[in-house]
Amino acid sequence: MVPIEHNKIGLSLLILFCILTQDYCAHSIPLENQNINVNNNIALDIGFIVDMESWVGKSIHQCITMAISNFYALNPSYKTRIVVHTRDSKGDLVKVLSAVDDLLKNVKVQAIIGPEIFLQSKLLSMFADKAKVPIFSFSSRSSKEFPYLFQIKSEESTMAKSIAALVESYKWRNVIFIHEDTDDGREILPYLVESFQENNIQISYISAISSSATLDEITDELTKLINYETTIIIVHMSPSLASNLLLNAKRLGMVTEEYAWILTEKSVDLFRSTNFEVIQSLQGALGFRPLVPTSGRLHNLTTKWHNFMYRNYPTPEMKEVLVPAIWAYDTIWALAICVEKVGAPNNGPSLLQELLKVKFKGISGDFELSEGKVRSNGYEIMNAIDNSEKRVGYWTQSQGIRSGHPLINNSTGLGHGTVIWPGGSTTTPKGWVSRATPNTMLKIGVLKIKNFKYFMDVGYDVENNVTTATGFSVDVFNACILALPYEVPYTFVVFENVSYDDLVQKVYKKEIDAVVGDSTILANRSEYVDFTATYTDLGVGTLARIKKEDMWFFLKALDLSLWLTAIASLILTGLVVWAIECEKLSSNLSRFVMFIWLLVVLVLVTSYTATLASLLTVEQFELASKGRIVGFHGGSFMKGLTVSNVHFEGHHKRAYYSYEDYALALSENGDADAIVDEIPYIKMFLSRYSGDYALVSSQSITSGFAFIFRKGSPLVEDVSREIAKKRLDGTLGSLENKWFENQLLFPSGNSTMPKALKLDRFGGLFIIGGVASTFALIISVLYLVRAKMEVQNIISLLFRRPNSSSESWIGKSIHRCITMAISDFYALNPSYKTRIVVHMRNSIGDPVKALSAVDHLLRKANVQAIIGPETHIPSKFLSFPSSREYPYLFQIKQDESTMAKSIASLVNSYNWRNVIFVHEDTGDGREILQYLAQSFLDKNIRISYRSAISASARHDEITKELRKIMNFQTTVLILHMSPSLASTFILIAKSLGMVSKEYAWILTEKTVDLLRSTNFTVIESSQGALGLRSYVPPSDRLHALTSRWQSFFYTKNSTLVTKEVVVPALWAYDTIWALAESLEKAGVPHNGSMLLHKLLKVGFKGITGDFQLGEGKVISNGYEIINAVDNGERRVGYWTLSEGIKRAHPDINNDRLHPSLDYEAVIWPGGSKTAPKGWVLRATPSKSLKIGVMRIIYSKNFIDITHDVEKNVTTATGFSVDVFNTCIRALSYEVPYTFILFENATNYDDLVQKVYNEESADAKIAEQIDLLNPSRRSNTLTL
Fold it and tell me: Fewer CB atoms inside 10 Å of the end CB: C or N, the chain?
């Protein structure tokens, strides 16, 4: 809604649009004599629109002039000559469009170059396509939809990729993004979010700075940024605004060695500023500039440009030719070549075809327009040093970051030591610093524990008002934090009478930042927080008392039968030897018998020693018979659960709450046979008490102690890495010795006690000895017989051997509600002296016609206010006073930021971490992106893929895009498009099997009225979708209005598009009431200021609830969450800004027992009542997880690899593989995978690099979890 201040109509919102209703087809075939013939050359008129008061405009204008001169000097025989008609836009969008109209209608130009200021592609292309005249824009995007619009600038997506590559090259994980609060400034944001997500980089904060922001406003925003830990700042704004930003940043101490400033292509020309103060504020910044290869032609052009600009402008703003000016030079050459080939003037289609084919070596490099845009050569990375800039590297799409030009030097990354950072430092900023202020210090939650204090003991210094903590856990934490390459100030926050589960919830709710103490890694806790690597031993153990006073204990190593057999064997062997030798050991047979006997004795002695040692350390610990008591840690999470896991089912269980209790319970007069606890607690107990107790058995069924941080905290990875380093360098061992001294540990793999050796274990050994003795005895006898009978053949025989519609339903609905509103209001207020008279204009969904209608209503109809349009048009076009606050423009819709927050809350309520966002490829469709990115960032949600669908997309184009989406693992789709486009989209999705139980479909407010469609096929395809619709409280007035609305449309048209009144129509109804009330109070007509004042104060109970416009927009009642079920829709919950997701609206029901959605009430696609998991790995060869493995000769029990060459299949077995398979199968989603064998890998460091480089492995399986070390800081390890 736009109230009009009559005396400001002179600003003339778009004078040109009163002409735009004329038919442009007449311009496509002008008269032949409209092109003059001079000196036998055909003059072809070209339009040129720039802000001639700006340095960019002046630079482009001079380059165009030189380009025409140089081209025709080189090609004097050409029959055509370009004649340029310049229009000065003065940076005003209205003047730009007016100039376009004038050049097309009156001058009848053959092409237009410009403007350089941002203008929506659709708006500019409407002129180009209707007139069939190419327009070369330095700011608008080209697309297949707009063939006559050429893009003479770099792609935003390319810029985003280069920035992400630079950030990733320095291993920075978080950045702050500052952009100009314009459509042009916001355009890069969705591409930046995608590129950052691909590189696991997060945007900590997005700052939007108004173009007209005052120094105070910029200072306030920078002060806010100082409080963030992130120190990597990306600037994307005009050089003039960026100079103010950096000057203020330097004054606030933000251009220092802690910070890294990165300027995008939009801001980088600030490096060439001639303002010394600005140059000083830039020192150490990095910037991206489109790469223009050096050449003699570029040098000559620069010299001529420099001479002209310095001669005509004594105080130039920049020292070098700007890249857009160089592109303009080559564009003129392309145009001159093509118009010569076309020959005949006014032949737009032929000129378009030639332009798409043109290729030549230009000043900017290889110049072509085959895709409707200039070809990118990549970027040069500039570093602001002293009073100039230095090139420190390059980025190209194919090779990424390079220190030298890709055609000259293939060295990867920027050269070490080549970059000078802010503050003159040559050390790369770490990128993340915790601020040492009370408000920003890390709040570490600690438990005040009455017992078991050696891990965490909390004290309080009353005088200094400081909480102190000591203990093993604190020492490990401090050692890790102090070792970090950046400062992490923190303070302890004490909690009493709570558990670690309670602290986990406090971290999740962001009440505290972390938890330090004896907190065990548990699966249910990891759903809410992130754990570091464990810093203690894993598992639970059994603590028992040592048994003493048994002088015959040594006999227990062998069973009685084994003792008797050994003695008998000794006697038998002695008899055999005696029988053979009689006197002395001289026969070989007797020596053979003694050799066998000594072998038996050796085995027996070795086994006896091992068993006796085991018994001395294990069986001597006294565990009572079945039926007595086994204790457990009463203050732990176990509560007896772990006792069952270590096979004490038959014992009674009792909780003990201190080490003193442990010692007393296990004493001679105690009542416990054993204590079951986590191993770190047992080790601590053993360090404090005498050698009367020991750890007798253990099992790895818990994951040890770790520190707790919020999900996504960068400290998790860094602290985990430090824990691994401390374990490797012995620091952790030293701390364990300090706290766990005098331990007596004898853990075994399970709880089975060692037993005495029995005869059945050694039967074979004695058989061998007996057979050998018998055999020797027989041979001895045979020798005696031989001497007498000579039977040699018997001996010989014994030793022989074997051998993987043009008139929208919304418009009709709004029109009807406005009509009813006027009727209802004046029926209720017949005494009012004013009456609203509505002048309708049909925009047919065309922004140009909408703007033309605005102009006509202001100048001809002399209206006092305008309601509409519903078609998206940039705010700047509809704000008559040139103020960034746009006081005369009222927003009769919910904020995009509110919509984004509600979507993020809904996604988060189901713990979905990844989504796919599908939007209409329009300014309106893209507007929500920046808010969605920020809201998802706050909830730790990622956009896996963003799909932009053209409003005119064909069936096959939508199908192709949906097939691409099907290949993604993410199955949560958010639709943000018009209902008409959404209906086509979701119908095709259903035909492809995507409306099934695997998927979740969420429809934004822009799309949700699809669920009220009367088209059965559309309703059928939407089954199970969730939608968010602006909440309108039920009332008798709403019911009556709906009934009248339905009666009217059923009378006029029996085929309703939707069954209910659309929310914009209800807002329009209340807006009419607000206008009628305000006009009556304003009294005097044509008093825009007074009407504005009254509108800002209006407030009443309307159809939509409490209606007011105090902030220039309607008040939000939140959203109702709708579920498409059967042939209708059902409300399953609400969302409000203050309460978040609720089952009932807060104004209706404040029932705290049901704070979230009615999850059981939601019916999902495919009729399922089970919420989709949100993520499924597709079981296709290209989507199988590639698991890197290597051959290990020395430890095949962990992993053993076989490879079938014929089938080219690798299989793996072993302990590590079994553990991996068990975990993968336990996941709530399918994870198909295939093993990739690396024959040449020598160690796991090689595989780590392959995972990092994304060569062929997504993960690796090892015989152990390798320690983190500096060479492996790029990958994440499991706990």
Answer: C
Distance CA 923, CA 119 (A): 11
Q: Given a cut of 90, is residue 805 above it in pLDDT? A: no
Q: How many Å apart are CA 310 and CA 415, to the nearest integer?
A: 35
Dihedrals phi, psi of 736, to nearest 5 degrees: -65, -40
Extract the tokens encoding 895: 């904020």
Spell out the residues 6+ positions from residue 66 whose beta carbon is closer than 8 angstroms to its own.
Answer: 301, 304, 305, 329
Angle between helices 323-342 and 55-74 (to 10 degrees): 40
- Judged on CB neighbours under 10 Å (0-12, 13-18, 19+), 397 is middle
pLDDT in tens, 819-863: 999 999 999 999 998 888 888 888 777 777 777 788 788 878 788
Which residues lie across from 677 on neighbouring strands?
A: 541
Report residue 1014 as tokens: 């009367």
For range 635-653, the mean pLDDT: 58
Span 1040-1090, pLDDT tens digits = 888 888 888 777 654 555 667 888 888 899 999 988 888 888 876 767 888
Please name the residue ranges forming H helices in 292-322.
Answer: 296-312
Tokens of 1054: 């029996």
The 10 Å CB-count burial string (b at 16+, else e) for 562-596 is beebbeebeebbeebbeebbeeeeebebbebbbeb
- 523 three-class SS: helix
Check residues 386 and 704 and name the one with the higher pLDDT: 704
Give the pair of three-digit tokens for residue 335: 């145009």
- Cβ neighbors of 494 (< 8 A, separation 6 or more) are 446, 447, 448, 458, 460, 467
Q: Give the model confidence (pLDDT) of 67-110 as tens digits.
A: 999 999 999 999 999 999 999 988 888 888 889 989 988 999 99
**Cβ–Cβ under 8 Å, residues 64 and 84:** yes
Q: Could you tell me which of 1095, 1077, 1039, 1035 has the C-alpha nearest to residue 892?
A: 1095
**Which secondary-structure segment (H or E) carries 322?**
none
Could you give phi then psi for residue 1263, rounded to 5 degrees? -75, -10
For residue 694, the SS3 value is: strand
> How many C-beta atoms surround the C-beta of residue 641 within 10 A?
12
Q: Which residues contact 266 (CB under 8 A, 6 or more apart)?
A: 180, 184, 185, 236, 237, 238
Bridge partners (DSSP) of residue 233 are 176, 261
Rounded to an integer, what distance in angstroms lies between the CA atom of residue 135 and that of residue 574? 113
pLDDT at 638 over 70: no
Give phi and psi for 644, each to the nearest 5.
-65, -35
Beta strand ranges found along 1086-1126 (DSSP E)? 1099-1102, 1105-1108, 1119-1125
Of 117-126, 693-702, 1148-1157, the range with the lowest mean pLDDT is 1148-1157
Q: What's the residue count for the chain?
A: 1279
Q: Which two tokens stand for residue 807?
A: 């008139």
Beta strands in 163-306 (DSSP E): 174-180, 202-209, 232-236, 260-263, 286-290
Q: Give the N- to C-terminal CA distance of the chain in Å, as an integer.
A: 57
CA dist 1059 and 1055 (Å) reads 10
What single string gives the DSSP state of each residue in 926-940? HTTHHHHHHHHHHTT
Three-class secondary structure of residue 682 per DSSP: helix
pLDDT digits (tens, 9 = 90+) for 739-778: 876 544 444 444 444 555 555 555 666 677 677 777 777 8
* 1200-1204 and 1209-1213 strand pairing: antiparallel
Tell me what pLDDT residue 11 has: 35
Dihedral angle, C-alpha 1248, 1254, 1257, 1262, nearest 10 °: 10
- How far is it, in rounded angstroms, from Cα 56 to Cα 1193? 67
Instruction: Please list, residue by residue across 908-934, b when 16 or more beta carbons sit within 10 angstroms of its beta carbon and e when fewer do.
Output: bbbebbbbbbbbbbbbbbbbbbbbbbb
